[in-house]
Amino acid sequence: MRFVKAICAAMTMSIATMGVTLPTSANDDGPIIAISGPLSWPFFAAVKQGFDDASETFGLDYQYVAVTDTANMTSDYPRLLQQAISRNPRMLLVGEFFPDGMDPLIKEATAAGIPVLIHNSGQTLWEQNGSIGFIGEDPFQMGYKAGEIHARLGVKKGLCFNQVPGNPTVEERCTGYVAAMKEAGLETIYQTIGTGDATNPQAMTQAIKGTLQANNDIDGIYTLNAVPAMSALRAVDEVGRKGEVIVGTADLSNEALEAIKTGDLAFAMDQQPYLQGFMSIQIAYQFLNFGLQPIGHVKTGPLVIDQSNVDHTLDVNKKHAGVRGAS
Amino acid sequence: MAQTPIMELQQVSKSFGTTKALTDVSMKVESGKILCLLGDNGAGKSTLIKVLSGYHQPTSGKLFWQGNETRLPNPREARQLGIATVHQDVGSIPLMTVGRNFFLGAEPKTGIWPFKRLDTEAANKIALEQIRKFGITRVSDGNQLVGTMSGGERQVLAIGRAMYFGAEMLILDEPTSALGVKEASFVLKLMRQARANGVGIVFITHNARHAMAVGDEFCVLIQGEVAAQFSRGDKTREEVLNLMAGGEDMTELESGLEDIN
Amino acid sequence: MMSFVRKPEFGAIAAFLLTYLFFTFATSGTGFVSVNGTAGWLNLAAELGIVAIPVGLLMISGEFDLSIGSTVGAASMIVALGTNHFGVPIWPTIALALMAGMLIGLCNGLAVVKTNLPSFIVTLATNFIVIGATMGFSRLIANVTSSSIVSSESAKLLFAARWGQANISVLWWGIATAIGFWVLSRAVFGNWIYATGGNLQAARSAGVPVDRVKIILFMATGFAAAFVGIMQGIQWNSGNSTYGMGYVFQAPIVVVIGGILLTGGYGTVTGIFFGTALFGVISTGIFYTGWNTDWVQLFLGVLLGAAVLANNYVRRLALTSR
User: Fold this and answer.
1) For every residue of B211-247, which 3-state class applies, written as one string?
2) What is the pTM of this model?
3) Which chain C residues are closer than 8 Å to A202 by Cβ?
4) Is residue C235 exposed (0-12), middle (13-18) or buried (19+ Cβ within 10 Å)?
5) Of A42, A193, A202, Cβ closest to residue C144
6) Largest CA distance in chain B
7) CB under 8 Å to A291, separation ≥6 — which residues?
8) What is the ipTM of this complex?
9) Does A contact B via 3+ CB–CB distances below 8 Å?
10) Per residue in B123-142, pLDDT tens?
């Protein structure tokens, strides 16, 4: 009996491995699978809405795959990609968040004839791994632009606040920020908080307040999300330096937009996640049906929202919740 | 002078599915007397205790409390009648104070509604008085944790608590089994005191020496049936041991043990 | 003096004083010890503290609640969706959110007493159920997982008022502590909590309604979690499904630092209070020192270990005969 079980186990294992490693050709009946970010992040909720709207507009069905628990993304995402490849898809729409694990798999897929379109992350890699294109803006580039803006606005010592340390995609934004500031010959401080406090706005406020008190030459803060942005504003207020510290953030929320309107928040950067989703499906449709595709990388961001264009953005946010990433 | 037994069982049987734990058990517990319930492990003693304390209901047979036929649907009803059970683990809570443990489930209150609070002072004072009354002198503060007391002291606390709350019948499940000689004699002394106060005591034990030391009546259970019932003085210790072990095997076992030694 | 040392809260109080003293020196000149600095860590401690008190009582009774995190987020989303998406005035949504918290607690409690499964597992399952439901329904109803809250003056007064830089949450923490203290050490119910955790069978035999005790405590943790979610939502004008995820482990941590035994039956509310205060001081103070903030977690972990060892010693002292 044990012998039979062992044989069965061995057969199952070999079939499973074959399913992943044997080259499969592009399957005209296969599903279109989008591997993108966790839906608990408003950013990716907007990406998905883009996917969904385009799917309806073009009549192209697809499946959205993502992790739900963000604790293990570095290993979970390559696994998800592997599973998607083994399902013989018609096309893959991938956010290459973790290139070390995911890039080899993308190369395998494209070598086997599966068309791959990258969005959100993987800007520097898509040309080498056989993908047909890239939509979006690398987090590194986002952070870099923020650094450029801060430098332009006269910040001498900037604080980049990362509320989710250990998350490589988010960390990239700070890495970019620090790089840009460094190139301009300016100082930066990189701050994180304990993982338990990633969703605690009070904890973020106190943390930033402490850092401001310990370094009272900080005159710029860049946050990676709208929630820490509001915390940063409160912290600046509490240490009595309102108006002296230039605060900007990645991503949006209604509160953040209101703060831009009143002038408290200098800018918010919209990666326009909706476009990443929408245009991925659009390009997929046109590629699969007509063989057409954009040449080169399609940029969706960052759209810098400051006092000059905030009113319109607020309007849209109120009318179409979820399109800009947070409400 | 025949007095009504405080509790009487008539032909009580208890089955669990197809297993018969007790078969036609008849016995009497009398106030001011100690009934020793003897039997080896698996004889049915724990099932019998559970029937006496209302935890289980008999499958057949009758129960009489103070001469009246009754049913004990749950332990709480039994407690309210005045049947107190002290289990093997003594039901003490080591990390709780003596006062609080003593009054658990019957806490004294003080103050006005809705701010009625636990009267820790009264609880500590009374608890201390009671256990002093039963001979424990080592405990000096009602705020002491029960964990600071020895096994024997905890037994006394449990028994004293039962008596304080008006137990008329006390079921003691192996109270001396985990105690050393000195502490055991302490507890036996307390049992005599309780008896003198008119409480009817069911003393479950597998230690014949302890049973012979305090017992007035004896009931031996073997495999769920009453194998023997007798009064003090009717049988010798060896006869009792033999009965408990189910026959002559005991003497063989004992001599076998001595050979090993 | 010795009798004070034997008390379960001694470790937490001593640790708090020592740590605060430490940070006074390590952060000198940066304003940590100022009124505003103190308001800062009190604000942080208060939010955790309100949840930690019922969680601590529950742990004394022998059970865990790992679902408080998701309840906090769910409550904030109920208020957010109610006011922002459905246009309902805020007070009914607050009432709804509080009831939802108690309902979650009731389900936890019933599941634990009826199935006799470890509460660790049961509430872990609830945690996933609640957060999944929160995100799923939010997206279904309004296509978002976080949303603005449209508040009212009275709601802002009760949940978001400030004196200087101190939030009203500090006042609520004080109230929660007072209630918890009174229930645990003065009320008869408190004796039942200790008994249920100390020796369940003995408590039951003594007539303590242990099932009812546990269910009530689970409902209390659910209520407190919902309360904090509502408070956070109104303070930041925004509901978020992920508020409160950190409390799942932070609450038991401060409870254990406060002298409560993981196995139940021992501990005081004073201890929980000082354990929470200690946590607030460390979490906030470390940023004033200017040190690399990655060490925060290391510091907390070491402290937790030290606290458990110290509390063990204190408990052994208490159990030795006089």
Assistant:
1) HHHHCCEEEEEECCEEEEEEECCCCCHHHHHHHHHCC
2) 0.84
3) 43-44, 47, 167, 232, 235
4) buried
5) A42
6) 70
7) none
8) 0.86
9) no
10) 999 988 888 887 777 888 88
